[in-house]
Design goal:
The protein has 291 residues and is of the alpha+beta class. It folds into 2 domains: 148 residues, no CATH class; 68 residues, Alpha-Beta Plaits. 38% of the residues lie in helices and 20% in strands. The radius of gyration is 24 Å and the shape is elongated. The C terminus is likely disordered. The structure holds prephenic acid. Prephenic acid (PRE) binds next to helix 3 and helix 4.
Length: 291
Amino acid sequence: MRDTPLPIATPDTLADLRGEIDRIDLEMHRLLMARGDIIDRLIAVKRAQGGGCAFRPDREAQMMRALVERHSGLLPVDAVEGVWRVIVSTFTYVQANYAVHADDSGGDAQMRDCARFHFGFTVPYVPHHGAGAVIDAVAASKGDLGMLRATGPLEGAWWTRLVGETAPKIIARLPFVERPDHPAGLPVFIVAHPAADAASRDILLYAISVPRWSHSIPAVVSTLEGEILASAPSGGGMSLMVAAPGRTEATRFARELAAAGVVDAVVAPIGSHASRYELNEARSGVFAPGS
Ligand SMILES: O=C(O)C(=O)C[C@]1(C(=O)O)C=C[C@@H](O)C=C1
């Protein structure tokens, strides 16, 4: 019996492949426009929650984790994360316009890169010189965000300006997905007038003011599984910026400090953020075809 001849595979032409790309691009664009079609309903829901900035960092932290975890293939995760940051932050902007005020006193380039990566180019970037000026601008605004360095040399005890019921608060720490080679990896805090459901409370942040330094302070902070992020002279004494797990109430800190002999410590909440999330290094690289 004679074998039936196998069909000869014809190589793709460039025109065929471009046709496929056009179909995929069209579908992606239609889906983006469909995503935009629900904006009016989002605005109505947010208005019922009190208006202000539409930024919901807790939700975004979950979204960005899910995105990088499900990602596979040749496209670098940096690019995928960047695309979604622009989509989500621009959707936030069209719900309620806002600007990002940033402290450029440690250098403008890194801050600008971070703002553009996390918030895109549609959202205005407003540079200020000093953390105080950023916090003042956010305090005077209805729904703007402030971006401040979370680590490195810090200018005075700026976090004390976040103390008090009506003062802005830290509502996020970026990047949401950390990795050593992140293209905009400078750790920053986002400061805003907080919406009730906006910030995650995985990590609580406190300003602890004390009349003077005591070696008992680090011991108390570490007993409560906290971390001293910064310290600086403030109001004749000193102030510490402390991060602690979400279950650690201010009263607990005050009690433990008093028990350790640290007198007159005042512990005030200054915000919260999602727990830090590190992407496994092996998943973040660019994989060349055939490697
Ligand atoms: O989930 C929301 O609250 C939205 O407004 C939607 C959306 C998005 O575009 O996915 C936009 C802004 C928020 O920060 C989080 C997510």
